[in-house]
Each structure stands twice: as structure tokens, then as C-alpha cells.
């Protein structure tokens, strides 16, 4: 509780308060200690697996973590979800990650360049961009081509955000495509009314009906918003597919366990869970 | 002037009301009782408590020194303590990581002894202390400055030693400023996100404080994120109200 100075101004009262504060400090410090315990040491193979994964993987990896813990008795999977750039920075600064799953090839490359990966990264999922509009579709957008119509309120994530960069790549592809042309791209860019902090914020604007459309990943259409938006597919020849790499980090506490996690993610089971949460499988069937 | 206050209050109240109404409409009260929410709340309570204890124990004498002594470098020290306020939270997080991470300036040496600070609950407290300290120290120093030195000197003349004079004269007189500073610092610590996620990571139950939980839920379930926001709003409102009530009673008793 804040403002713990005692009400009584007397010296004895202050001394008592001081003692109380010190006691609280000791208790608080003691209970704050530790980075999370090891798993049940009596188990077959106890231990902790630390996974650093992009935020978009929260649901899919959460489910896989429960699976993994069931299969590996005594193992605790603790995951930290954040933006890929944050995770990469942390790993480069020595964060205790065993596995890194990035939403961005560039961030994985940054970590690899520092020599911090054990083995090569492997693509474990792909994500395609889609356009979403509010469910009631006030702007009447029926196809990708409608986006260039004047007056459409389009929002996008901020420029550095990968999803927004892919959106711009898609528009560049469209300008080179004779069925759309450079005027299409220009008209769509003119329709951008605001840039949001991240993709989720942009999605939220559409859900709230503030915006007529945005570009986002298919996986961003999470169960809670599925009923509130309508998806407009981007023509396959224009679409940019994001590939998500995963790798074991050098210096992992238990490299074998880390590799088993990677194998789970790449397995049929892992791919099924990822598909359930809106991702595309890792590889097209040859 | 009443109009101005009303305008300000209204401006703050309307968005907060919108959040609460959204929760009611979307029927997501149950999200407030979810394991994620409760773990985050418990962690926030624990870490902000530890932060406040540290700030009060260390910050109060520090603020007193800054208010009373005019030594060379006092102004520079004052500025130093203010710096975390202007630093964007993410920059603060990177700075803490560069200092105390495994490969950090100090962290590397600590790691050699097996001490790891980053990505632990302790890291959360460190981040909170870093960003919230200026808010307490600044107001505490202002409070001490406003205490008339002649009253302190009178106490000394009457036979009290420095420590006793401090606790029985200076502190009670500066009390309202100390409480206000503590509330501000606590609120800042409670809402800390950027420095925490970068320096401590986003581990449920260990470093996922309420703001981090809200961010994480926002990625997957907007309704749950809003519910959590309303939860922390309610919690903060209750605490601040309680503290103000208790301290008003205390000052009334003394008077």
C-alpha cells in the first residue's frame, strides 16, 4: 500500500512504522525472488523450457505448451510473448531464452548474425495478409479492388510494423499488375486516414466501426472478433506471405528439450494447432 | 473555475465510463476473474508494494538531503533523479537491460557470481523503482522544502536530536506532500509497461504485471483486455481513495 508513513508523529510511532516497513520490505523481497522454479525434480526429466515467441503466437503456443508439459512430465514451459524486435534485442543482451519463435525473418537474422543460434532457423508457420471490414460493411467493400474508391477510411499499422510493410509490398505488386496499375496504389494510399501503433490497434479500429478497412494477418482475426468483421481476400498473385522462423538459442539450458519443442511445433500436431489459430502450414506440399 | 474543473473531470470520466460500459455490454466480467487476471493483479500488488517500501525507505532521506543541503553537485544530482521521467519507458527498459542484463555493464559481473537480475520478479521491481522514483522524491523534496527550518531548529534547541526532530517535526509537517508523492509514484509504478516488458520479459505469474497482461490479452481478445483495464482502474481507485481517507484521519488526529 502506498503512503505508509504512520499517522502518529511521535518518535516511537515512527520507529514502529520503520520496523514494519523493513519487515514488509524483507517479505516482499523474499517473495519476489527467483525467475520461476524448476519443474518437479522427481519427474522423469524436470526442468524449465523458456520460449520467446511473437505475440501473435500466444494462443497457439499456449495450447502447445500444455501439450508439451503433458508429454514431458516435470517440465514447465514458460513463455514470454512480445514483439519480435523486443525479443531479439533481449536475446542479444543475454536473455535466458531456450527457443526463439519470430514473426519476422529479419529479427531472427539479427540474432543469427550475433552467433546466438544453435543450428539453422526453420520456418514453422506462414501468415497471409487479408483485408478486413466491419461486419456490417458500411463502405460496401466487396473485393480488393474496391479499396481504391474515394472516401474509404483505411487504417494501417505504423510504418515499421511488418504487417504494414507487407501491405505496402502488396500495393506495390498491384501497381505493377495491369489489372490494377499505379493509380490503384495511389488511390488506396490516399485513403489511409491514420496509422496505428500496431496491427491489433488497427483491427480494433475496424471492429469498433471507426475505420472502413485495414490490412492484417489472417491470424489476427481471432475468435473474439470473427463475428464482428468480414474478411476480404487479397488476390493470391498479389499477396505477400510472412514466414515465421523458429530456432534453438545457443546456451539453452537443455538443448535436447528445446529441440523437442521445435519438433513439436513442426509436427502434424503443432501444425494443426497453428492452423486452428489462423496460421498457414509451414510448407506447401511438394 | 468550477467550469474548468468540471470540464477536466468530465474529460477524464467519459473514457473511463466508456470502458466500464463496454465491459457490461460485452459481458466480460468473468475475464476479470480469469487466472491471467488474478495472477497479474497479485503480481502487480506484490511488486508495487515492494517498490513503494523501497522508495519510501530510500527516497525520503534522499529527498530530505536534496531539500536541505546545498552541496556542490546538488543540482546535478537533482537533475539525475529527474531523468527517468523524460526517458521513454522502452528506452528505460533497454538501459536497464544494458546495465543489468547477463551481458550488461554490471550484470555481467553479477552473472559471474550466479546472480541474474533480468527477467525475474526483482527486475519488475527494479523497473518500477526506476520510473517511479522521481515522482516520489520530487514531491517529498518539495514538501521538506516547505517546512520552516526555524521550527526544526526550535525542536533541536528543545533538546531533540536530529533524528527525533526529523520524525516528530519535519515528517508530520511534510506529510501531505509525502503522501501525494507516494500515490503518484505508486500509480506510475502500477502502470509501468515498456521498461518492464523489455527488462523483465512477459512471463505469466513472474513478470506479467497488469499492464503486460492487458497488452497480451489485447493481442488475442479485446474484451478481456478491456475487462482487465476496468479491473485495474477499480483497484487503483480503491487504493487511492483509501489512502486519502486514512491520511486525512491521521492529520485530523494530530491536529
Automatic annotation (TrEMBL), chain A:
Subunit (UniProt): The complex is composed of two ATP-binding proteins (ModC), two transmembrane proteins (ModB) and a solute-binding protein (ModA).
Protein name, UniProt field: Molybdate-binding protein ModA
Keyword Signal: yes
Keyword Cell wall biogenesis/degradation: no
Species classification: Bacteria, Bacillati, Actinomycetota, Rubrobacteria, Rubrobacterales
Pfam families (alphabetical): SBP_bac_11 (PF13531)
GO molecular function, one term: metal ion binding
Family: Belongs to the bacterial solute-binding protein ModA family.
Organism: Rubrobacter xylanophilus (strain DSM 9941 / JCM 11954 / NBRC 16129 / PRD-1)
Amino acid at each position: 500500500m502506498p503512503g505508509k508513513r504512520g499517522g502518529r508523529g511521535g518518535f516511537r510511532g515512527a520507529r514502529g512504522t520503520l520496523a514494519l516497513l523493513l519487515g514488509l520490505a524483507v517479505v516482499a523481497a523474499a517473495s519476489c525472488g527467483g525467475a520461476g522454479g524448476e519443474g518437479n525434480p522427481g519427474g522423469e526429466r524436470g526442468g524449465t523450457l523458456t520460449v520467446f515467441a511473437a505475440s501473435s503466437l500466444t494462443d497457439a503456443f499456449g495450447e502447445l505448451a500444455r501439450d508439451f508439459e503433458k508429454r514431458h512430465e516435470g517440465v514447465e514451459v514458460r513463455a514470454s510473448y512480445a514483439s519480435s524486435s523486443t525479443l531479439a534485442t533481449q536475446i542479444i543482451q543475454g536473455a535466458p531464452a531456450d527457443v526463439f519463435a519470430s514473426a519476422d525473418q529479419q529479427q531472427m537474422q539479427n540474432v543469427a548474425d550475433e552467433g546466438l543460434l544453435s543450428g539453422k532457423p526453420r520456418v514453422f508457420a506462414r501468415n497471409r495478409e487479408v483485408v478486413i471490414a466491419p461486419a456490417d460493411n458500411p463502405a460496401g467493400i466487396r473485393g480488393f479492388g474496391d479499396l481504391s474508391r474515394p472516401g474509404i477510411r483505411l487504417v494501417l499499422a505504423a510504418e515499421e510494423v511488418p504487417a504494414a510493410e507487407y501491405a505496402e509490398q502488396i500495393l506495390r505488386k498491384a501497381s505493377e499488375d495491369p489489372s490494377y496499375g499505379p493509380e490503384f496504389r495511389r488511390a488506396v494510399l490516399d485513403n489511409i486516414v491514420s496509422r496505428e501503433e500496431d496491427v491489433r490497434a488497427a483491427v480494433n479500429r475496424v471492429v469498433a466501426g471507426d475505420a472502413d478497412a485495414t490490412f492484417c494477418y489472417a491470424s489476427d482475426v481471432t475468435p473474439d472478433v470473427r463475428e464482428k468483421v468480414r474478411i476480404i481476400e487479397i488476390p493470391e498473385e498479389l499477396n505477400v506471405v510472412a514466414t515465421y522462423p523458429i530456432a534453438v538459442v545457443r546456451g539453452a539450458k537443455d538443448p535436447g528439450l528445446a529441440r523437442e519443442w521445435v519438433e513439436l511445433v513442426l509436427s502434424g500436431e503443432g501444425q494443426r494447432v497453428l492452423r486452428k489459430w489462423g496460421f498457414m502450414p509451414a510448407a506447401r506440399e511438394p | 473555475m468550477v467550469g474548468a474543473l468540471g470540464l477536466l473531470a468530465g474529460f477524464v470520466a467519459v473514457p473511463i465510463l466508456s470502458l466500464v460500459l463496454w465491459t457490461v455490454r460485452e459481458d466480460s466480467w468473468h475475464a476479470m476473474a480469469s487466472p491471467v487476471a488474478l495472477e497479474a493483479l497479485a503480481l502487480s500488488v506484490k511488486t508495487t508494494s515492494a517498490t513503494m517500501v523501497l522508495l519510501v525507505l530510500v527516497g525520503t532521506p534522499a529527498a530530505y538531503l536534496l531539500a536541505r543541503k546545498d552541496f556542490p553537485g546538488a543540482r546535478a544530482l537533482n537533475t539525475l533523479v529527474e531523468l527517468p521521467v523524460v526517458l521513454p519507458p522502452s528506452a528505460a527498459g533497454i538501459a536497464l537491460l544494458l546495465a543489468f542484463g547477463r551481458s550488461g555493464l554490471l550484470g555481467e559481473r553479477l552473472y559471474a557470481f550466479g546472480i541474474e537480475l533480468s527477467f525475474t520478479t526483482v527486475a519488475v521491481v527494479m523497473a518500477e523503482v526506476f520510473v517511479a522514483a522521481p515522482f516520489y522524491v520530487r514531491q517529498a523534496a518539495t514538501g521538506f522544502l516547505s517546512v520552516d527550518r526555524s521550527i526544526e531548529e526550535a525542536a533541536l534547541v528543545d533538546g531533540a536530536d536530529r533524528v527525533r526532530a526529523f520524525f516528530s517535526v519535519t515528517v508530520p509537517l511534510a506529510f501531505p506532500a509525502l503522501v501525494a508523492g507516494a500515490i503518484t509514484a505508486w500509480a506510475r509504478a502500477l502502470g509501468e509497461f515498456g521498461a518492464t516488458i523489455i527488462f523483465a520479459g512477459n512471463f505469466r505469474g513472474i513478470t506479467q504485471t497488469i499492464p503486460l497482461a492487458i497488452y497480451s490479452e489485447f493481442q488475442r481478445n479485446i474484451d478481456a483486455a478491456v475487462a482487465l483495464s476496468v479491473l485495474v482502474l477499480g483497484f487503483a481507485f480503491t487504493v487511492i481513495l483509501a489512502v486519502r481517507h486514512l491520511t486525512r484521519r491521521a492529520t485530523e488526529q494530530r491536529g
